[in-house]
Design goal:
With 459 residues, the chain is mainly α. The chain is 79% helix and 0% strand. It has 17 helices and no strands.
Length: 459
Amino acid sequence: MEVSSQHLANEYTEVYRRLPLKLQFAYGVGHVLNDVCASMWFTYLLVYFHLVLEFSNWEAGFLLLVGQIADGLSTPFVGFHSDQSDNFWLCRYGRRKTWHLIGTICVLMTFPFIFAPCINCTHSHKWAQMFYYCVFIVIFQFGWASVQISHLSLIPELTPNEHDRTKLTAIRYCFTVLSNLLVYGITWAILHINSGGEQSKIGPDDADKFQHVVWIGLSLGIVSSLIFHIFIKEEGAFGTNNVRGTQLRTPVIDLLLSPEVYQVAVVYMSTRLFVNLTQVFIPLYLHETLDMAASALALIPLIMFIGSFMTSMIIEKLNRYLGRKLSYVFGVLLGVSACLWIKLGSGDQFKSFEIHIIAVLIGACGSIILVTSLGITADLIGDKTDSGAFVYGIMSFTDKLANGIAVVIIQDLHKDPSNKGFYRDVLTYVCGGSAILGALAVISFLKKVRVVIYRQFRI
C-alpha cells in the first residue's frame, strides 16, 4: 500500500510538472475564435455602427450594453451548469468541452450578421434595426460566454501547480494577442490598400471591408477550435483518471457569501475595464481627437498588441520572481504612464511618433495585469476545481456588466461633436482610474486571499 501511494505521488508530480507541449498548444488555440470576435467586438463595434451604419453614439453604445448584459448573465449560468456532472449523453463528451462546443456553434451562426447591414431592413426605423441586431448579439454573447468559461475552468483541472497555471494562462493570452494581431493586421491591410487615399476616413462605403475581416477571422477560429477539440481529452488523462483522486467543490452559497470572492472580482473587473475600454475608445480617440486616417484605426491597435505579445513572453517569469502583487502594480504603472501621456501629449510629433510608444505601454500593461488577475482567480479556486467555472462566471459577470454600463454612459455623455478632447479625457481618467483601482485592491487584500485559500478552499 505504501509503495502504491508513493507511485501515485510520483505520477502526480510528473503530470503537473510536465504538461505536454501538444496539450499546451491545443489548449492555447481553444480560445482563438472568441479572441477574434472579441477583438472585432470591442475595437470596431462602435466604429462600425456609428461611422458605417450611421447609428447615433447612444444607439451604438446601447447595442454594446445589450451584449455585455447578455454575456454577464450567461457567465454564471454557464459556470454553474458546467460544474455539474450530468449524465446527459452529450455531456459524456466532457462537461467543459460540451459547453465549449455549444458556444462555438452559437458564435459561428450569429457573429457574421452583427458586422453586416440589416438584411431586408436597411431602410427601416432605427429601433427595428436595433431589435434585429439585438437578437444576434444576445445569442452570440451566450455562445461567447460558454466558450470563455468552459475554457478558463479547464486550467485548474489540467494542473494543480500555481506556476503551471500561470503558464497556461500566459499561453492562452499569447494566442489572444496573436489573434488580435491578425485581426488588426488584416483590417489595416484592407483599409489601407482599398482606401481612397492616405487621409481617407471610415464611412458607409466600408461595410464590405468589415465583412471580409470577419470571415477571414472566423475561418482561423474554426480551424483552431477543431485542434482544441481533437487534442484536449477532458475525460481521458485529466478527467476520470485525475491524479488528485477526486475533484472538490465549494458550495455555491459559501462562494456567494465569501467576501474574498468579491474582492477578487474587483481586481478582475478593474483589469477588464482598463483592457476593454482602451480597446473600445482608442480607435474613436484616433478618429475624432487626433483626426487620423482610417488605416491608423488598425495600425495603432496592432502596435498595442505587439507590445502585449512581447510582454506575454515574460509574464510567467515575472509572476514567479516578483509575485502577483508586484507584477500587477508594475503593469499598472506602465498603464497609468500611458494615460497621463495621452492627456499631456499634442502636436505633429505626438501623432507621428509618441502615440506609438503609448500604444506599446498600454499593450504591455494590459498583458501583465490581465494574466496576473487570472492567476489570482485560479489561486482563489485552489483545488476546488468543481467550482471553478462558477467562480470564473462571477468574475466575468462583474466585468461584463461594468464594461457595458461604462460604455453606454460614456457614449451618452458625448453629445457635443465639437468637443474633440472627449475621448482623450476618457482614456486618461476612466481607463487610468480603473487601473489604479485594481492596484489598490490587489495591495489591500492579496495576503488575506492567500490565507483564505489555505483555510477555506483546501481539505
